[in-house]
Design goal:
This protein is an alpha+beta fold. It has helices at residues 287-299, 314-323, 338-341, 346-361, 381-397, 436-452, 480-494, 541-552; strands spanning 12-15, 18-24, 31-35, 51-60, 64-70, 73-74, 76-81, 84-90, 96-103, 106-115, 135-136, 140-145, 148-160, 163-174, 180-188, 191-200, 204-213, 228-236, 239-248, 253-256, 259-262, 265-266, 269-273, 304-307, 326-330, 367-371, 403-407, 421-425, 457-462, 500-505, 511-512, 527-528. The two termini are 36 Å apart.
């Protein structure tokens, strides 16, 4: 499944989900693995780190130009078509596609060399407090396209003088060497937005922009998540040759002083940090388990989620669109020291991740905040320059959403003036046995005096660890009782502080961590055990504590 809705009525598209041949590097044996899936699901590869090759045979029934899209390969992919390298991509959490021109009918082979190893070539995927799985972990699709096709549409709503507007950017890609002339029409509800003479040079792209009023639409909000379909049809000489359907919502996001507003109304974010990780399937979470996660979180009264620490599967974002969950989506860079950020590949790999995150998830109304660089070296001059560069990159792509970054550089961060929203991670009562209220007051005062004055403040992480089923009347650390006590005390302070506009509990579910690096030494079971449910989604005592407090907060 690519999306939760149909994206094409004209373009012919085939999902390549199913069983692919697989062989690890240096092994002549051939295995059968599911796609999407993590190779760790197979008993022979439960801890395998390295390279492996996937193979799939396809049949093309008539000559055509093809568009091959991968929603996620972890973490590096080299894609071959009939033995020829056609694409290379780094980062497990962002999609990529490639065009294969004038493919003849017959049988063809797709081969994908996948690498989930660590090394200098990988600046972002490093031994970390979550697991780097291997495989083709998200859906794959193959489309037969016209030589000129709709590459992307971007929809930007705005509310001006009491009227809703929509700005539509349509990107058209001409794969031939000749100039072409085209027209298109985009339908939203009973409105049409059209352009009758689009000129696209050979081997190039053209972006056409249209803006118009939508006086009688229903806004999207977390209370009423009204969605609209935009169906764009591209024509040549009066004949429809391609189409693309996207879902959008009419909503605005603004920062007004210390408040965050959606559609002009103040919102207080009550949410979880959620890793894409499940005990039996790793990061390749199927739709029924995504829905189960969503049901559990909404049962606890959430209105928001943070996609720590990478862009999420777009199917999950579709669910958030449908259910009105406000999303802080984050790029992929977590806990990097300055020496990590000075990796020669860091800037380029972050730039690519930011671009692919914003371009591919731009139309989701649920995404209200772009986040970058969780707990990186924001206390250094060199680190600050990298934060500034990435904020500027995102703002150049999207001015309709605020930006933020979660810091743990307490009292040393020199980058708090850069984002629109200041966010901090604080584990009072867990890592340090300090009074929550006093520690929070010190933090707020420091933020005000360090560039964060008159900005919204979010507590982006709070929590404690517990082993599911471990109960102790003394309420010792690692017991469910101690975890529940710490979360309750923290939430009561933060949710009643007028300076704070949102809280995200760390975390929704226990997740696997890598044994390489330092993390396993402080993570019992080689898991980050701070979930209010375990890796099988069995609730701990803290589940009901969070539920009662979130549901009471209006």
């Amino acid at each position: 499944m690519i999306r939760l809705f149909e994206q094409h009525q004209i373009r012919k598209i085939k999902e390549l989900d199913g069983i692919w041949d697989f062989s690890p590097e240096g092994d002549l044996a051939m295995y059968q693995l599911p796609v999407p899936g993590c190779w760790e699901q197979h008993p022979n590869f439960s801890t395998y780190r390295g390279k492996g090759t996937y193979r799939k045979t396809i049949v093309i029934t008539e000559p055509s130009t093809l568009r091959l899209e991968f929603k996620g390969v972890s973490h590096t992919a080299y894609v071959y078509f009939d033995g020829e390298l056609i694409a290379h991509h780094y980062n497990a959490f962002t999609p990529f596609s490639t065009i294969i021109k004038q493919v003849q009918k017959g049988t063809h082979e797709i081969k994908v060399l996948v690498d989930n190893g660590f090394g200098e070539y990988s600046a972002l995927h490093i031994p970390n407090d979550y697991y780097t799985y291997g495989g083709i972990t998200r859906p794959v699709s193959l489309a037969c396209i016209s030589d000129t096709y709709i590459k992307q549409i971007k929809f930007t709503p705005s509310f001006e003088d009491g009227v809703w507007y929509g700005k539509l950017d349509v990107v058209i890609h001409n794969t031939t060497s000749k100039l072409g002339r085209f027209s298109f029409v985009s339908t939203i509800d009973h409105y049409e937005m059209s352009f009758n003479d689009v000129e696209v040079l050979g081997d190039s792209e053209t972006t056409v922009t249209i803006k118009q009023q939508f006086p009688d639409i229903t806004p999207w909000s977390h209370k009423n998540p009204k969605l609209y379909s935009i169906h764009t049809i591209l024509s040549s000489n009066g004949n429809a040759i391609d189409d693309l359907i996207e879902r959008v919502g009419f909503r605005t996001v603004n920062v007004i002083g210390t408040k965050l507003q959606v559609n002009g109304e103040h919102v207080f974010l009550k949410g979880f940090n959620r890793h894409e990780d499940y005990a039996t399937v790793g990061c390749a979470i199927p739709l029924p388990l995504m829905v189960h996660d969503m049901d559990l979180m909404q049962d606890m009264g959430v209105n928001a989620l943070r996609t720590c620490h990478y862009p999420n599967d777009e199917i999950f974002l579709d669910l958030c669109d449908e259910r009105g969950i406000l999303v802080w989506e984050e790029n992929h860079a977590r806990g990097l020291l300055l020496e990590d950020m000075q990796n020669p590949n860091f800037d380029k790999q972050c730039e690519d991740c930011n671009r692919e995150m914003v371009e591919n998830h731009y139309n989701h109304p649920c995404v209200i905040i772009w986040g970058i660089l969780n707990e990186c070296a924001s206390e250094t001059k060199e680190g600050r320059l990298k934060y500034q560069k990435q904020y500027e990159q995102i703002k150049n792509m999207d001015t309709s959403r605020p930006t933020t970054s979660a810091t743990c550089r307490h009292f040393t961060d020199i980058s708090l003036d850069l984002p629109d929203i200041v966010s901090f991670n604080m584990y009072s009562g867990w890592y340090k046995d300090v009074p929550v209220k006093e520690r929070n007051e010190e933090e707020i005062e420091w933020i005000k005096n360090s560039g964060g004055d008159d900005k919204p403040i979010i507590v982006s992480e709070l929590g404690a660890a517990a082993i599911y089923g471990y109960r102790d009347r003394t309420r010792c650390k690692w017991s469910e009782e101690r975890q529940a006590d710490i979360i309750e005390e923290n939430l009561k302070v933060y949710m009643n502080d007028e300076h704070i506009t949102g809280v995200f509990v760390w975390q929704f579910a226990d997740c696997r961590v890598t044994e390489e690096g330092p993390w396993f030494a402080t993570r019992a079971r080689c898991h980050n055990n701070k979930g209010v449910v375990d890796e099988y989604r069995r609730p701990k005592i803290a589940y009901d504590i969070v539920k009662n407090l979130f549901l009471d907060k209006k």
